[in-house]
Amino acid sequence: MAPRTQRDCVICRGREGDGDLHRVEVWEDPLWRLTTSLESEVPGFSYLEPKRHIPHITDLDGREATTLGTVLGRVAGGLREATKADLVYLYVFGGGIPHLHIHLAPHREGDALNAQMIRGVVVEEKLPSGATRIVSKEFPPLGERDLGDLADRIRARLSRKPRVRR
Ligand SMILES: [Zn+2]
Predict the structure, then answer these.
(1) Ligand 1 centroid vs 6 CA: distance in angstroms?
(2) pLDDT digits (tens, 9 = 90+) for 103-152
(3) Beta-strand pair 102-107/87-91
(4) How far is ligand 1, taken at its centre, from the CA of residue 61, in Å?
(5) How many whole angstroms from 96 Cα to the centroid of ligand 1?
(6) Per the count of CB atoms within 10 A, which of 4, 12, 126, 131 is most buried?
(7) If you measure from the C-alpha of residue 55 to the centroid of ligand 1, how many angstroms do you get, rounded to a whole number?
(8) Domains of the chain
(9) Phi, psi (degrees; rounded to nearest 5) at 133
(10) For residues 2-26, b (16+ Cβ closer than 10 Å) or e, as one string?
(11) Who has greater pLDDT, 55 or 1?
């Protein structure tokens, strides 16, 4: 299990650290808290974080792992209603502050959010399924054979019993 708190972590400081991050708490339960940004181009841009110091999504375990789905559905639904957004986008990066934080971005047509996951000049192709394939001119798709091999490795890794961390 990750340590309960980390001394030099601004997110572990909870409400006391919110001023430094220009945000305010809008919801909490014993394990999680949701804060909303007070400086954003996007109305209602919010952060969902475990109170316990869990560094990255890849470290998620314990009660936070079993409650995330319910909590995420509740807070995303509340955000969408309160902001009258069309959708709520989620982002998890992890390269900044090493305390898991899920960005929730209420999205409306024409707002400041970038709807792309890849860099570069992108070309959109409508597929017969109705989905849109987004291809970057700088980063063309990798070979299907290599991606298939990688999918096999991922499938094999995930079919093993999960590691139990103590
Ligand atoms: Zn922390």
Answers:
(1) 5
(2) 999 999 999 998 778 888 888 888 899 898 888 889 888 999 999 999 99
(3) antiparallel
(4) 15
(5) 12
(6) 12
(7) 7
(8) 1-115 (3.30.428.10), 119-160 (no CATH)
(9) -95, 130
(10) beeebeeeebbbeeeebeebebeee
(11) 55
Task: Tell me the sheet residues that pair with 69.
Answer: none
CA 13 – ligand 1 centroid, Å: 8
d(C-alpha 100, C-alpha 35), whole Å:
13
Give the tens place of pLDDT for each residue, 3-56: 778 889 999 999 999 999 999 999 999 999 999 999 999 999 999 999 999 999
Centre of ligand 1 from the C-alpha of residue 77, in Å: 26
- Ligand 1 center from residue 51 Cα (angstroms): 8
Per-residue pLDDT tens digits for 70-86: 999 999 999 999 999 99
Q: From the CA of 5, how far away is ligand 1's center (Å)? A: 6
How many residues would you count in the chain?
Answer: 166
For residue 141, give both structure tokens.
């798709």
